[in-house]
Design brief:
With 135 residues, the chain is mostly helical. It is 86% helix and 0% strand. The protein folds into two domains: 35 residues; 93 residues, no CATH class. It contains six helices and no strands.
């Protein structure tokens, strides 16, 4: 994508100086576009890395990690606990991905964001109410 962006900048600056003919524009951009076609790795790695680091930070120090730590310490079988916890996390992630895909086909992203926000606010209000009532 960077090469295509560079191509657009080059063409724009050359055109503003009136030193580029139409065939040069076509050849330059076609060459740059051919380099990026069929290589969506930038997008794939972008989605993968943002997902990985978001989930990593969300899961760090949460109940799942603490439960896994305790189970590993109690069982003295850390690799079996690792395999079981990994399989469980993969399974819950699969459910989340499949549900997210289904929802994205039936609900617009804007509505989905609104519903997600409303759900989180509702949960926060219920937790806050629980703290007030039980204190």
């Amino acid at each position: 994508m960077k090469r295509v962006t560079d191509c657009v900048k080059t063409v724009t600056s050359a055109a503003s100086e009136n030193r580029l003919v139409l065939t040069d524009i076509s050849t330059t951009c076609q060459t740059e576009a051919e380099l990026s076609v069929g290589k969506p790795w930038g997008k794939i790695w972008g989605v993968f890395s943002s997902t990985f680091f978001t989930i990593l930070m969300a899961e760090m120090g949460d109940k799942t990690q603490l439960a896994t730590m305790l189970m590993s310490a109690q069982s003295q079988s850390p690799w079996i606990v690792f395999a079981g916890a990994g399989a469980a996390l993969v399974s819950t992630s699969l459910v989340g991905v499949l549900l997210g895909r289904w929802l994205s086909k039936h609900i617009t992203p804007k509505t989905l964001n609104l519903l997600g926000g409303m759900l989180l606010v509702s949960i926060s209000i219920m937790l806050f109410w629980d703290v007030l009532v039980n204190s």
